[in-house]
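Let's see one such:

===
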Amino acid sequence: MRLNIFALLASLLVTMTADAQDSYQVEKLDKAAPSSVQGEIAGSLEKTGYKILDGSGKPFVEIWLRKEIPASAKPAGPKGPVLFPFLADGEVLGVLEFASEGHDYRDQPISKGTYVMRYGLQPVNGDHLGVSVFRDYTLLLPASKDRELKRPARKALEERSAEAAGTSHPAVFILGSPSGKAAKSVPSMVQDTEKNLWSVVIPLNIKPKGEPAAVVLPVQVVVVGSAPA
């Protein structure tokens, strides 16, 4: 009986340790984006950002958002399979920096470094079936080569993003719309235990065309985990 008790305690300890190691946290970051971000994009960013820590408390990802993101209209509900139809393809959302190697939603390795986050939509073709209910995502482009706010053409956007992954496919992170407590708790981390995903909820400052001020839109970005194989 004593051996069984010790075995049970050992099992619980292993489970608790695994859970702790897999727990990600997000904090506000009181520093500007790194000097590797230059040109128009550097000037468009907020002076503070957000820091995501891994289960060991080590820096994992740092994010700086754009001060104002142009939009064609006020944020509203989804339009078909598009959550954010008011955002233009290729629009700059912010900048992301990996403290060490990361992975995108296709499980492609992304090298340590700084990347510009641009909005995009998954192509409507058989290659993306089952990836997500909605088509919205953010593409990563190497910050050293992406300095202008001008939106690139779709082909150029995908080709330049593929450089971030070192493959022929863009480096992509799924964008979602938070619900419940997550939508009211910004910033925060959301875990999907069923799909083994971690997402960060952050506030985008959306500036609708013709409106005098920006409005805050919480969005959810998958930063850990990948689509089912």
Notes: Residues 1-21 have pLDDT under 50 and may be disordered. The radius of gyration is 19 Å. Residues 16 and 123 are 41 Å apart (CA to CA). The helical segments are 2-21, 39-44, 154-165, 181-184.
